Amino acid sequence: xxxxxxxxxxxxxxxxxxxxxxxxxxxxxxxxxxxxxxxxxxxxxxxxxxxxxxxxxxxxxxxxxxxxxxxxxxxxxxxxxxxxxxxxxxxxxxxxxxxxxxxxxxxxxxxxxxxxxxxxxxxxxxxxxxxxxxxxxxxxxxxxxxxxxxxxxxxxxxxxxxxxxxxxxxxxxxxxxxxxxxxxxxxxxxxxxxxxxxxxxxxxx
Amino acid sequence: xxxxxxxxxxxxxxxxxxxxxxxxxxxxxxxxxxxxxxxxxxxxxxxxxxxxxxxxxxxxxxxxxxxxxxxxxxxxxxxxxxxxxxxxxxxxxxxxxxxxxxxxxxxxxxxxxxxxxxxxxxxxxxxxxxxxxxxxxxxxxxxxxxxxxxxxxxxxxxxxxxxxxxxxxxxxxxxxxxxxxxxxxxxxxxxxxxxxxxxxxxxxx
Lengths: 205, 205
Description:
The structure is a homodimer. Chain A is an alpha/beta fold and about 200 residues long. In chain A, the strands form 2 sheets. The first copy, chain A, has a 7-stranded mixed beta sheet with strand order 6-7-5-4-8-9-10. In chain A, helix 5 links the parallel strand 4 and strand 5. In chain A, helix 1 packs antiparallel against helix 4 and helix 2 packs across helix 3. Chain A is elongated and about 60 Å long.
């Protein structure tokens, strides 16, 4: 697999394609052209063809892509065929919203562990999960072999939580706390700070 | 201003730089080198220098950047010197979390309007705001001259809401609903679907 040669920006678009393919499968669409995909996603057809070409040929020129095969192939490339356990740290409004979020289950992820430091929250039930004590973070993550963490703590707590997660074996962090995390090279971080998303758009206003 | 020549990926990093500069100002740091900025942000110093060079010279070779001037300049470039009104549609757990989010005020944004379609929510107070009826969306947005919308509705409602927002004058949408929105070319959309962020990282696991 030519993993190292694929730009991260291309990897970032694969989940977008995958979600649209899921949508097309639900519409019972069997074949889709790069043109139609492009129109639906506001991405040029040429860009889509170029992105997919990093991973080999997925369709014959002019024949379009087989929706189900491309979906399976992208799922394989993104390694989301199996369900991965996710630990969520910080059960405020946002953490609770994510814990309830229905979108994870069919897309390769399951929040299996909720942690907080608030004695009033520890032991309470959210959905089918019980909030556990964040002081147990390291043994819990190790024992359950969790590699993915979602951090929804206040900013001041996030770096310490990230450090502990990484010590315990986490290799991917989705960070909602409004700070930039310092992490070793083998760990990936994605940020979802609403302010940064908004600032990126106001440039164009 | 060389706006059209700056790649969007560069624009996407400016808020990251800006946040770090805010942080450095709080530390009373006067000058910062691209090397130190890079180390703090896990971005190469060369990348930072290249990104900033799109906007002219910000520092003398070897002397580092003046933290306050660079902060002011990036704020100007991103147009976040003034506070912009934001409408938030969909006051569930996530919407409430965002309405309470303290990070907006100092970064150029203020949620001024909360809308929902639930009669049990309309008229209730969240912070200092009253939830208003989403059926009034268009006149409210027009009257208040709001250009930025945050959509935290369920997926099935999001496209209709986006269409109405755009008719009323919205030009930037931060979309938390797990669907890809169809929008005209003059409208920017940013997505913050947690699933897509997670999928982007599992590729590297």
